[in-house]
Amino acid sequence: MKLIPVILCGGSGSRLWPMSRKLLPKQFLSLVTEHSMLQDTVLRLRGLARAEAPVLIANQEHRFLVGEQLAAIEVRPKALIVEPVGRNTAPAIAAAALQVASDTPEAVLLVLPSDHLIGDVPAFHRAVASAAALAVKGHLVTFGITPTEPATGYGYIQEGKPIEGRKGTFRIRRFVEKPSLAKAKAFLAKGGFVWNSGMFAFTARRYLEELMRFRPDILTAAKSAVDGAARDLDFVRLEAKAFAACPPDSVDYAVMERTDRGAVVRAKMRWSDVGSWSALWEVGSKDKAKNVTRGDVWLHDAKGCYVRADGRHVSVLGAENLIVIETDDAVLVASRDRAQDVKEVVAKFDRSGRNEHVSHSRVYRPWGYYETVDVGERYQVKRIMVKPGHQLSLQRHQKRAEHWVVVSGRARVTRGEDLLVLYENQSTFIPLGTKHRLENTGEEPLFLIEVQSGNYLGEDDIERFEDRYGR
What is the predicted pLDDT for the residue at 1? Predict the structure, then answer.
């Protein structure tokens, strides 16, 4: 039996604003350990019996983040599939299943979100072993988490008849949407209900067969997208038009709630989907007053608070049950019992055309990153870092000119027909409409200050002519 993890890297994590943002959502952040949540998801696969290299599915904006974070933990994926647009989990898993089924249709797919926390890894491995054994026999298996409280933020699964010969495994009687508190309490009192974790195991062949039974439209579109896919660097790019035409649906609605082959493995592995700041408070290491802190934080007479300082010092005095999150461009202060409502703040930003929910002041690119230092009328100042051996695209701007000052490192600059090499304290000017490129030809990171001037300074004023990253 081959076991191939399929890791879903989508999701916006809007309830974890201001740390989680559209261009850097929670799965790529270090929220619990020194690794990102994606890295922790991959690392907990080590030691899992029969597990092969994972298949990962990410959107275009995050593909380089995924690649870099895997390289940082020395993991090379079996495939890194790039979605041109998000179409929910059923089409994403279909693309992975089709990719795997081309050579190993009987392989068991272990489908995992990239942004979940599992505290008991040995218990996770035991649950996977049980699920894989059922999947080989034709079941479509989900992982049910033993409830520890009447939570209203999770969907529930009601267990049916036990599966003979497999302790802790059951046929699925029904799925239940996120319940009211009264219903959740009733579920726990009655017994036989588990939280729906959103993790699955089934063979590639069986999933595709069931998808054909219930949603042939999804399968047809996904197959066209895979058949027309192009390889680009380490990525498998799904054909954009075909995948965009794919109806969006979750694997729960498309298959799991309809199939008669569904099974659930009951697991107790200290699981959390880390869906809010209150969830991070629950799993965090607490002091005697039940506070959880991270960063440069000072508390006095505070109780039950979660306080995170990302760049500056934060002091909290005489507060109870508060969430305080500091970043370099935003601060969130909220009651802990209102943590789920942070998404409303993000929605308001979106409606008003602001961008605090889109990106941090530091924006990562495949060549490095840039930070916005200052913005004013007709000018913008950025600090740019280019990794050794990397380069920006050959490009030009129609609405702005740029001044570059090298702070440290060695820069090779293409400016029209000129080729310049600049060192520390040297500078150049890029006139409006001039083709240009910036390269780091040294062995150390290149840092420079960029001053933009013009009547429009948006990132969409870029016309690319050559780009090694396929943008």
Answer: 86
Same domain, 290 and 207: no
Amino acid letter at 191?
Answer: G
Q: Which of 272, 296, 327 is the last residue of a domain?
A: 272
> Measured between alpha carbons, how far is 55 from 47 in angstroms, rounded to an integer?
17
d(CA 14, CA 18): 8
446 inside domain: yes
Q: Is 454 exposed, middle or buried (0-12, 13-18, 19+ CB in 10 A)?
A: middle
At 85, the amino acid letter reads V
Residues 265 and 230 in one domain: yes
Please enumerate in sequence order all residues whose Cβ is within 8 A of that of 291, keeping only pairs 6 or more positions apart, or say none.
299, 302, 303, 304, 305, 306, 307
pLDDT, tens digit (0-9, with 9 covering 90-100), for 323-363: 999 998 999 999 999 998 999 999 999 999 888 899 888 88
On whether both 325 and 451 belong to a single domain, the answer is: no
Q: Are residues 262 and 286 in the same domain?
A: no
Helix 89-101 vs helix 204-214: crossing angle, to nearest 10 = 130
- Residue span of the structural domain in which 252 resides: 3-272
CA 197/CA 418 separation, integer angstroms: 57
- Position 281 in a domain: yes
Domain count within the chain? 3
Spatial distance between the Cα atoms of 38 and 36, rounded to a whole number of angstroms = 5
Find the helix or strand (DSSP H, E) in which 412 lies: strand 411-415
